[in-house]
Amino acid sequence: MPKEKLIVALDVDDRNRAMELVNKLAGHVGFFKVGMELFYAEGPGIIRDITENGAKVFLDLKLHDIPNTVGRAARVLARYGASIINVHAAGGGDMMRAARESVADEAQNKGLPTPMVVAVTVLTSINQAVFSREMGMPGEIEDRVRAWALLARESGLDGVVCSPREIELVREACGPGFKIITPGIRPDGAKLGDQRRVMTPAEAVRAGASYIVIGRPITGAPDPAAAAKAILEQISGVADNG
Ligand SMILES: O=c1ccn([C@@H]2O[C@H](COP(=O)(O)O)[C@@H](O)[C@H]2O)c(=O)[nH]1
């Protein structure tokens, strides 16, 4: 089902606006993504508000700290009912394992479904010039994404967040079943904003994305439900390789 692949980013700072979008979009979307802005504004209750209506939540807080801190924080996040939580792969294998283990342990102790844990690789707002010159990272972005995806898989994570341009190389390195979640999605003619490594929804699905994440092209549209429907139409005839 195309709608199962669509994750809409609720990048707003209040509950009313978030729930207005959830109510308009629930029939067209697989998951809603709660990021730092909405979580910091409204706290964990917003996850309950969204999931109460039967929708699924990707809690995108991108944890990145020492393994003990991330493990303990991820344990708390596992209580809130999100289906996906994430960490930064740059925190290393011990940190990712700490998150994975504490989330599984907490879910089991509390009798809750175990959320997927995925790792953010190189942010989709980063281009090669910024990666090399500002961040001082050696080599190509693609090689770093592949290496971090393999480390995430070895650390027991369920998948990665990467740009759609790296879908094929991650799929080849990490195999079927490994989830590939791609922001940096822009329908033809949509504003790039701060995104740099982008593809259209249809290109990303054809390349093998498990999920595509779209925020402003839907939430900033005059009619968000119509914008979501148009995107579902664009991906509905495309071979689903994810
Ligand atoms: O590498 C990344 C990781 C996360 N994101 C998040 O996805 C959405 C994209 O929103 P748009 O409005 O469609 O640009 C946003 O919430 C980011 O925090 C990302 O873009 N890139």
Question: Which characteristics define this entry?
Answer:
242 residues; TIM Barrel; eight-stranded parallel barrel; 12 helices; binds the ligand O=c1ccn([C@@H]2O[C@H](COP(=O)(O)O)[C@@H](O)[C@H]2O)c(=O)[nH]1
Q: What is shown here, in short?
A:
The protein has 242 residues and is α/β, with parallel strands linked by helices.
Distance between the termini: 12 Å
What's the structural domain tally?
1
Order of SSEs: HEHEHHEHEHEHHEHEHEHH
Mean pLDDT: 97
Rg, nearest Å: 17 Å
In total, the number of strands is: 8
Poorly predicted runs: none
**How much helicity do the residues have?**
40-55%
- Main β-sheet, in a few words? 8 strands, parallel, barrel
Total DSSP helices: 12
Structural class by helix and strand composition:
alpha/beta
CATH C-level label: Alpha Beta
Write out the distinct hetero groups bound to the structure: the ligand O=c1ccn([C@@H]2O[C@H](COP(=O)(O)O)[C@@H](O)[C@H]2O)c(=O)[nH]1
**Share in β-strands:** 15-25%
CATH topological fold name? TIM Barrel
- Describe the global form: globular
CATH homologous superfamily placement: Aldolase class I
